[in-house]
Amino acid sequence: MTSTDDILSVQNLTKHFKDFTLQSVSFNLPRGYVMGFIGPNGSGKTTTLKLIMNLLRKDSGEINIFGLDHQVHALEIRERIGFVFDENHYYDELSLRDMSRIVASFYKYWDPKVFARYLKDFDLNPKQKIKQLSKGMKMKFSLAIALSHQAELLIMDEPTAGLDPLVRYELLEILTALLQDERKSVFFSTHITSDLDRIADFVTFLNNGRIVLSSPKDDILDNYGIVKGAQELLTSETKHLFVGLKINSYGFEGLIKDKRSLAQSFKERVVLEKPTLEDIMLYTVKGESAC
User: Fold this and answer.
1) 174, 190, 217: which is the final residue of a domain?
2) Same-domain pairing of 12 and 71
3) What does the pLDDT read at residue 189?
4) Cβ neighbours of residue 192 under 8 Å, at least 6 residues apart?
5) Can you give the residue ranges of the ABC transporter domain (predicted)?
6) Which domain holds residue 274?
7) Where are the alpha helices (DSSP H) in the chain?
8) Could you tell me the CA-to-CA distances from 228 to 225, 232, 245, 252 in Å, in that order?
9) What is the pLDDT of residues 29-64, one digit of tens each?
């Protein structure tokens, strides 16, 4: 269901390919928040992003951005969105300043003063050529471009992939500062779930073209649990509680979706730990395994 406070709403989105189907995907991103979009390779994340950005045509479902149909109001929506990708394609021989002039021609609300301020904040030299930038500097340049035309929604596809920990930290700090403006939101697709542990408010998890979960991050981490115990505690009745299990000669370790069920099902001592988003993704994808 769409709310008037949602900056992005995806409802029952479906896209069929020869060997893959994105099936009835639904989630909502409220204004002023960060949504992490996770899933293994081949889960449908890139397809979903392309559908949102009108690079693919959906088979069915609805996509509304700023409360507007993403196809009917495509030009208006584009003015209000910033895109940051893992690989951005710029003209290597151009300087940052010259490249920005080309990009500026596509946006009605481009603000050269804002762009200059971000270059200064990010310690980027406007006279430097694109080809001279490190990967981290290119990502900062892409972010400066995305933020210089009054974008309200920032869509990021693997923005921290391949960056060293210090640059990743700097980028996440920039995003945190950006969200002090409660009118802006970030849709952050990544496989580096530790980044989302730090900054995400909501998490949407896609696997095999279907939504596994889409909820506030804190609710997810509060409800799920990692359980460890002796192998003899596992029975046919208790096994069904687990999303995923690892079993070896020493015992078991598994993920449960609702840790409140633990006391009812395990009368004997087990260890309960709080999972990370990576734990939740890995156990869900791998299921039961013996090692």
Assistant:
1) 217
2) yes
3) 92
4) 158, 160, 161, 168
5) 2-233
6) 224-290
7) 45-52, 74-79, 96-104, 112-121, 135-146, 165-178, 193-199, 217-223, 236-239, 262-265, 277-286
8) 10, 12, 10, 6
9) 999 999 999 998 889 999 999 999 999 999 999 999
The model carries a pTM of 0.89
Residue with tokens 């596809």: 157
Please tell me the predicted confidence (pLDDT) of residue 165: 84
Q: What pLDDT, on the 0 to 100 scale, is given for residue 288? A: 56
Residue 145 lies in a domain: yes
Regions of the chain where pLDDT drops below 70: 1-4, 86-88, 263, 267-268, 288-291
Report if residue 127 sits inside a domain.
yes
- Give the CATH number for residue 58: 3.40.50.300
Contacts with 136 (C-beta within 8 Å, 6 or more apart), sequence order: 163, 164, 167, 170, 171
User: How deeply is 77 buried, as exposed, middle or buried, from its count of CB atoms within 10 A (0-12, 13-18, 19+)?
Assistant: buried
Distance CA 166, CA 109 (A): 32
pLDDT for residue 47 = 93
Using the structure block, give the residue that is written with the tokens 């696997």: 207
- ∠148-173-121 over CA atoms, to 5°? 45
Q: What is the pLDDT of residue 291?
A: 45
Predicted local distance difference test score (pLDDT) of residue 51:
95
Looking at the structure of the chain, the number of domains it has is 2
What's at 210, amino acid-wise? R
Residue 226, H or E segment: strand 225-229
> Would residue 1 count as lying in a domain?
no
Instruction: Say yes or no: 89 and 143 in one domain.
Output: yes
Question: Does residue 183 sit in the same domain as residue 229?
Answer: no
Q: Could you read off the pLDDT of 198-239 as tens digits, one per residue? A: 899 999 999 999 999 999 999 999 999 999 988 888 888 888
Is 142 a member of any domain?
Answer: yes
